[in-house]
Protein: tRNA 5-hydroxyuridine methyltransferase
Amino acid sequence: MALNEMMDRPVVKKELVAFMRDRLKRFPGELGELEKTANERGVPIIPHETAVFLNMLLGQIKPKQILEIGAAIGFSGSLMAQHVGAEGHVTTIDRFEVMINHAKANFEKLGIADKVTLLEGDAAEVLPTLEGPYDFIFMDSAKSKYYEFLPHCIRLLKKDGMLVIDDVFQGGTILDDEADVPKRVRKIHRRLNKLMDTVLDHPALETSLVPLGDGLLLIVKKEEFDFGYILDEINTENQNRA
Structure:
């Protein structure tokens, strides 16, 4: 299982990160134990300060239908499931068998398996099949895919719904010139910058950036519209590479 590299690449002072991770209240019960075990083993879950922020945000929004892209071991899905109420539901997507097995086991352990549907497969193939609408979408998957998944998220998000995208600062390197970025991460760099350029000034979106973890991008859809041109752009790129 891959280690969570971004846990050690915060975008604010290390002393402040240490303060937040130490002083912010721990989660009670099985959820807290899951977080503690994951952190001790270096399993990739959202850092504690991000989880606390997400928990408070969801407590105010009170969403009924949630979509998550990137289930991992099920920690964030379990956290979100605590906020959907008796009639709500969380749908989460993952393609890695080891993560899927861990997530399913954790959903059972926390007693929320009836509130969570885990869709197994590549999000690029799963997202077009979903109908929504969702009140809240949390995207925490391959950063090179965020720009590609954005049109699907906007389509599936209800009007005035919120999309939260995790790890958008790439350790602060999205500010660097592409020529100074290692070749192995240039696609991520390019796509993250495209994502920012697309949403930050869009007239139908309200956006905010929060420097927790490796950066959170918050997007509220104020009007119905689509990003179909992005899908056309991605398809053209894929055809040119073939």
